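Subject: Sanity check before I submit

Could someone independently write out the structure tokens for this chain? I want to compare against mine line by line before I put it in a report. The sequence has 140 residues.
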Amino acid sequence: MNSEDDGWIVAQARHPLHGDIVVRLNDGADTVESIAAFPMRLGVAVPLADPSGFVLIDPLEQQIRELVEAPGVGMLVAVISGATAPFFREVICYVRASFDVGNFRDALSRRLPHLEIQTYTERDLEWDAFRSLKNSGSSG
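---
Independent answer below. Compare away.
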């Protein structure tokens, strides 16, 4: 782990659709200030044919940090990895309401052209998705 991983927790779970998953959560992310500043959930998912694909997506998280955290438009809060078929990685961030997901997706695709990048944004004023992940990770 590096210094960017301070405050992160790891949990394993079985998802009814995705099989075994590993979730890394930014445990202290959901402060009152962060929730107020970043009302939109951004998901970035990359499907993988098999587990060997995880090596190809190692740069994904760093590139997202550079595009979201470095300019201060958001915060990376969770990384979910499908450990059994279907294999995937999903990175969840919370971003400002003015965040331009189209420009973000284009920039990320230019940086990582070998990946099939899927994105979504959804209004999540109370960070319900993050808190759901956090609660499921701490309860089991």
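---
OP: Matches mine. For the report I'm noting this point. The longest helix spans residues 58-69.
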